[in-house]
Specification:
Layout: H1 3-24, H2 26-31, H3 34-52, H4 60-76, H5 80-88, H6 93-105, H7 108-124, H8 128-155, H9 184-199, H10 203-222, H11 228-251, E1 265-271, E2 274-280
Antiparallel strand pairs: 1-2
Helix pairs in contact: 1-7, 3-8, 3-11, 4-11, 6-10, 7-8, 8-9, 8-11, 9-10, 9-11
């Protein structure tokens, strides 16, 4: 087991142990705002549901964006072979290191660590920024991940490493070699970059977070695991899902989205010439 694998295992194990201890510790349970946790769970479900059902609310300009993404992806496929040739000519220890970093950053366990880390930290130290960040990450990972997983199985595109070319497909194949489109690694890495970049104000930090997705992008093409168009479409899925989740959660930050809101409260009040009807918004 490599040092990085050991570190990841220790981090996950420690997080689980801490959570188990925290739930057994009555003083910790008493200190946690249970209403806040319930509210967070409701908003999480609402954010996921809202994003998944978004297409039924799309209007003309939204469908134009979808068309642009599909058209752009089709155009990028013309660069798939030249791009692969470029990356096959790269070989160095530096690129090997970038490949490993990008590989792990785009794995599902990285998403679990990011989500759990931010949310649990926010609960423990009562930091709203960290807790909200964890919620947004989790909802965006879930929605974009579900869509990406469904598509890569249904499309069945051959990976570059199979040497069958970018236009070979075997829909619903159980073989990992035919799960190329879209990229799952870039889906996770893009969600991380977009949420974290949105949650900070510093331009320097924004650039830093956004650049992390680029590491995973280079990593997957250097390892001959994905075509360039796989990466482009996977990133687009994450962009749409993340923007929808963030917008919805910010709108419902201080209210229960499933509770019907009374828009107008009517009150009968005495007036100079009788009674009056007053509506309060």
């Amino acid at each position: 087991m490599s040092y990085l694998s050991r570190a990841v295992f220790i981090l996950i194990f420690s997080t689980l142990e801490f959570t188990a201890y925290a739930m057994r510790d009555s003083s910790f349970v008493d200190s946690v705002d249970k209403k806040k946790i319930t509210s967070d769970a409701i908003r999480f479900v609402d954010g996921v549901t809202y994003t998944v059902s978004s297409p039924i609310r799309w209007k003309g300009h939204d469908w134009l964006k979808v068309g642009a993404v599909l058209g752009g992806t089709a155009l990028i496929t013309t660069l798939d072979k030249p791009n692969r040739n470029f990356w096959q000519n790269r070989d160095s220890k530096i690129w090997d290191g970038i490949e490993r970093a990008g590989f792990h950053y785009g794995k599902p366990y990285a998403a679990f660590i990011m989500t759990g880390g931010f949310y649990l930290t926010g609960l423990v130290i009562k930091n709203e920024w960290a807790r909200e960040t964890g919620l947004m990450l989790g909802a965006a990972y879930l929605t974009s991940g579900a869509l990406q997983t469904l598509m890569k199985t249904a499309v069945g595109r051959a990976r570059p490493g199979t040497n069958r070319g970018p236009w070979t497909f075997d829909p619903f194949s159980p073989e990992a070699g035919y799960h190329s489109f879209p990229s799952g690694h870039i889906q996770i890495a893009t969600v991380s970059a977009l949420v974290l970049g949105h949650r900070v104000k510093s331009p320097l930090l924004k650039v830093l977070f956004y650049s992390t997705a680029g590491v995973t992008l280079a990593s997957r093409m250097y390892s001959d695991a994905h075509w360039l168009s796989d990466m482009a479409f996977g990133g687009a899925i994450s962009w749409f899902c993340t923007k929808s989740v963030v917008r919805r959660m910010e709108e419902n930050k201080y209210k229960n989205p499933f509770k019907k809101q009374n828009q107008i409260t009517w009150t009968v009040t005495p007036a100079a010439r009788g009674i009056g009807l007053v509506g309060v918004f």
